[in-house]
C-alpha cells in the first residue's frame, strides 16, 4: 500500500454492519420534518444542523444512561406507519451509500405503539420501508441486503412477546432477536424464557452485554442465555491481564471467560465511537479493539447509533485505521468476521464473502498499491 487509507477509499469498500439501531440513525432533517408532521414540540433544536450537533453533544456524556435519553426524541417521531417506512427506507439508502452490502438493523417494536399501531403493524411497516430502501439503492447501483433484529427492552416485561414476533416474521426479513437498554440492575437472565423460546425455535439472538456492566453481564448472556453474539462485549478486556515478562516486554494472561469467548469464536459487536461516548472505552486510540484484534478474537466493527455518534461505518473504520495503522487486510478481516457472524444462512453468507467482499477488497488493494 503506497499511502494511508483515506475516508473516500474506505467508503468504496464492501462493508458489513451487524449492530445499528434504527432509532439511532435518523437523518436530522427527517427528525425535524416528522416532528412538524405529528406536532411533536419537544425537539431541543428546530434546524437540522443544530439538531444533529445537539444529538452528538448530548451523547458525549460518558454515561450510558444519559446517552439513552437522546432516543426519546427519535422514538417520538416514529409512531406512525408512514414515519416508520420512511425512516427504514432512508436507513437502507444511507447504509448503501456508505458502501455497506449487508446490514442487520435493530429496533424495539414495543416503543412504537403510542399512536395505536400493533406490534405486527410496526414490524410490517419497517419491513416495507427496508424493501423500498433496498429497491432504491439497487436502482442507484448500490445493492444492499438489510435484515431486521427485533429488540426487547430489558427493563420491560415483553421480551417473550417480542421473541415470538421475531419468529413469526423470520421468513420475511426478521433475522433475529435482541435485548437492549441500561444493563445495571437488569441482567439478561430476567428474560430467560424469551431466550429459551428462541433456542427451541432454532432462531438467532444477540444480547447487549459487557458495555456498561462488565464481566457478569457477558457471563450471563453466554452461559445462562446462550447468546449467539455479544452486543458490544467490550468489557471482556477485564478478564485479560498484561504481565511483565522476564527480560522486559509483557505477556498476556487471559481468564477463563476471555478464553471461552475466543475459543468459541463468539462474535463481539464493537462500536468504537459509541463505546467512547458511553464511557466503555477511554478513546479510540485506547479502545480494546486493538488488543482484541491482536489476540484474534472474533471482533466486528459497527456504528451503534449513527445520529448520536455523527458517524458511519466508513468513518468508524477510518478512525481505527488512523489510530492503529490498519490497512486493507485488517479491514477485510473485520468485514469477513462480520459476514461469518451474520444471522443469514451459511450459503448466503458464503456467497457474499466470495462474490462481493473478497473481490471488492482485492480490487481496492490493487488500485491503491
TrEMBL record:
Cytoplasm keyword on record? no
The EC designation for this entry is: 3.5.4.4
- Domain (Adenosine deaminase) ranges: 14-354
Q: Which reaction does it catalyse?
A: 2'-deoxyadenosine + H2O + H(+) = 2'-deoxyinosine + NH4(+); adenosine + H2O + H(+) = inosine + NH4(+)
Q: What does the Swiss-Prot or TrEMBL cofactor note state?
A: Binds 1 zinc ion per subunit.
Q: Which residues are Zn(2+)-binding?
A: 19, 21, 208, 304
Which residues carry the site feature described as Important for catalytic activity?
232
One Gene Ontology MF term: adenosine deaminase activity
Q: Which keywords fit this entry according to its UniProt record? A: Hydrolase, Metal-binding, Nucleotide metabolism, Zinc
Q: Which residues form the active site?
A: 211
Residues that hold substrate according to the record: 21, 23, 181
Q: Which InterPro entries match?
A: A_deaminase, A_deaminase_dom, Ado/ade_deaminase, Metal_Hydrolase
What GO biological process terms does the UniProt entry carry, in alphabetical order?
adenosine catabolic process; hypoxanthine salvage; inosine biosynthetic process; nucleotide metabolic process; purine ribonucleoside monophosphate biosynthetic process
Q: Which family does it belong to?
A: Belongs to the metallo-dependent hydrolases superfamily. Adenosine and AMP deaminases family. Adenosine deaminase subfamily.
What is the annotated role of this protein in its UniProt record? Catalyzes the hydrolytic deamination of adenosine and 2-deoxyadenosine.
* Protein name per its UniProtKB record: Adenosine deaminase
Q: Which organism is it from?
A: Streptomonospora alba
What taxonomic ancestry is recorded?
Bacteria, Bacillati, Actinomycetota, Actinomycetes, Streptosporangiales
